[in-house]
Amino acid sequence: MKWENLGVEDPTLLEKASGFCEGYKSFLSNKTEREVVDHTVPLLRSRGYGEYVRGKEYGPGSRFYVNNRGKSLIMVTVGRRPVSEGLRIAASHIDSPRLDFKPNPLFEDTDLAFFKTHYYGGIKKYQWSTVPLSLHGVVILKDGSTTGVRIGEDPGDPVFVVTDLLPHLAREQMKKPASEVITGEQLNILIGCWPFPDEKVSQKVKLNVASLLFEKYGIREKDFQSAELCAVPAFAPRDLGFDRAMLGGYGQDDSVCAYASLMAELDADPEYTTVTVFADKEEVGSDGNTGMNSQTLKDFLTDLVSAYGCEIRHVLERSVCLSADVNAAYDPAYGENFERNNSSYLNRGAVVSKYTGAGGKYSTNDASAETMGLLRAILDEAGVTWQVGELGKVDNGGGGTIAMYMSAHNIDTVDIGVPVLSMHSPYEVVSKADVYMLYRAILAFFNSPRSK
Ligand code: MN
Ligand code: MN
User: Residue 341 to residues 55, 344, 391: CA-CA distances in angstroms?
Assistant: First the structure.
């Protein structure tokens, strides 16, 4: 099979893709699931989406959304065909690997103050030291009010860091396996070194930080116990490469698919009713009531279709879902981990993955030939360039997406996304043209009149 670089196929594509990715860059500056939801809801409202009203029978073209606890979102555009004929779902996730704070994070050691963290999702721990970090999240204060935290993103803000040992003294450290070079308990964020001006108190540096936190944000130490705070890389997303054909930034897994599906949702003129989902907790197994391994989506869809007198199980079996998540791009520096005929490549378009999982296809949805055939017909009809990709060589490791949780509801599901270099690192890389192709792929899926 011959694959072409998108730029060979259409030299004008980069300009279109770059324009599209300007919006993506500003979307990427939202670095947690809460920030993505906070950014998206006003955009939805400006585009005619209202908050979902249970029991209401919405007519074709109606648009509405459900905000699940400020951490996941469901967006709907009612299609021309009756809901009983099935839904067209695109589901991505808006959480990314990061360093969460422990409930008692603040401590002092040797005149330095730190926050203790508990990493979230699959990270190579050594990648998270000596990287400028910003702090994000919410704190529920004693009186029940909420304080938002976002420090380290504006040029005038301070940033924070996890330290590492200098190479001069690292002879023993460098002999350790990479998983132990920096341990989970060493992922402490440096936050201060200046003492509180009081002769009598001990732990002066910690106290000074605590007093600044109270002065500036009204946060007391006990308030960390009712908070969700995390540290993420402070870098802003930027063009990458002399040709500016790539984009580097934190959290592209899976904001890249979230943005492409959001734009497709907004631009859709759908035959079937579209459901665009932003899920939380994918990086830690989709558990909890904002993750896809919960009843939340199904409960909402049950309410939605019962307004039309439909049984949810009859609607779901006629529905199709694109599980929109990234795949691993072939990286020549690590070529031995990929099988060349079944890997995805940067700049060759949206990547469709029949299955993910690990070992002998464990823990995955394996899309049926019929579902692959339907998607193939839709994408080819719309002139979308796409490729297929497995997640690396058999038995080299593996990974999952929310596809298996969607298909568990009796929905025909298939994975689609873009290839990413350095996935789960503080600075992930994608091709702008791939991002644009993914948008076109999801839009084609939403607008297609093709039935199963
Ligand atoms: Mn993902
Ligand atoms: Mn991931």
Answer: 50, 9, 12
Which 8-state DSSP code applies to residue 335? G
Place 3 in a pLDDT band, splitting at 50, 70 and 90. Answer: low
> Residue 219 Cα, ligand 2 centroid: separation in angstroms?
32
Residue (of 23, 434, 59, 9) closest to 263 by Cα position: 23
Say how many Å lie between the CA of residue 180 and the centre of ligand 2: 21
Give the predicted TM-score (pTM) of the model. Answer: 0.97
Instruction: Report CA(183)–ligand 2 centroid distance (Å).
Output: 21
Ligand 2 centroid distance, CA of 267 (Å): 27
CATH code of the domain covering residue 180 = 2.30.250.10
Token pair in block for residue 23: 């919006």
Q: For residue 235, what pLDDT is reported? A: 94
User: Model confidence over 183-196: pLDDT tens digits?
Assistant: 999 999 999 999 99
Taking the centre of ligand 2 as the mean of its atom positions, its distance from the CA of residue 273, in whole angstroms, is: 28
pLDDT at position 69, please?
98
Residues 227-257: tens digit of each pLDDT? 999 999 999 999 999 999 999 999 999 999 9
Please indicate, yes or no, whether residues 421 and 335 belong to a single structural domain of this protein: yes
Show Cβ contacts of residue 53 under 8 Å, excluding neighbours closer than 6 positions. 64
d(CA 361, CA 358): 5
Give the domain extent around 162: 98-233
